[in-house]
Amino acid sequence: MNLLPTTLRGTRVVLEPLAAGHHDGLVAAAQDGELWNLWYTSVPTPDGMEKEIERRLTLQDRGSMLPFTTRRIDQKTGEPAAIIGMTTYMNIDQDTPRVEIGSTWNAASAQRSGTNTESKYLLLRHAFELFGCPAVEFRTHWLNHQSREAILRLGAKQDGVLRSHSRTKNGTLRDTAVYSILEHEWPMVRDNLLHRMSRPH
Fold it and tell me: Ranges for the N-acetyltransferase domain (predicted)?
């Protein structure tokens, strides 16, 4: 299982290995919509962005996470442009192998633009076709209906709900909805995502 940082490029987004130099761009992306104020997400505040980058890179060094910075691709030039968010492979199980796609957030102006769909496509393709994962997992807050609906639109199926699974940033207990896509489902999921991405946004 190849866990080396790598760049994944599509037509709308490019996923670059997270680096400390992405700090200012990530702060600007989080400020687009003040995403840290959404109670059901864990988007870092501007003051907390440096610490979050360090946390993700530390987990990368330990082999349990492979974090990415998401950039929009300029449709006129075809070149990577503004940073719009972050995403990761996380909870990496190298023996199975198996990964979870999560810790994802995108600037408000980038939402419903097709960028998130393509990001998930790039990550899923890499996980199934390069890593050889038999399953890829997604987790989200049970009350985050927008995220749950987006995961289902990818073609994932719900495995279950982990009740009182973890603490949220305000200290309340979170029920976590767990979803997955299996290796034999990937061709159908891939074709669905390619069809969705072919439509104009």
Answer: 12-157
Q: Which residues pair with 86 in a beta bridge?
A: 69, 105
- Average pLDDT per consecutive 10 residues, the chain (201 residues; last block may be shorter): 85 96 96 79 89 97 96 89 95 94 91 88 96 96 90 95 87 92 97 88 60
Q: Are strands 80-93 and 98-106 parallel, antiparallel or unpaired?
A: antiparallel
CA dihedral 88, 181, 108, 91 (to 10 degrees): -20
Does residue 1 lie in a domain region?
no
Given a contact cutoff of 8 angstroms between Cβ atoms, the answer to whether 121 and 197 are in contact is: yes
pTM, entire model: 0.93
CATH number at residue 127: 3.40.630.30
Given strand 98-106, what is the order of strands in its sheet?
8-9, 13-17, 65-73, 80-93, 98-106, 135-141, 173-182, 157-167
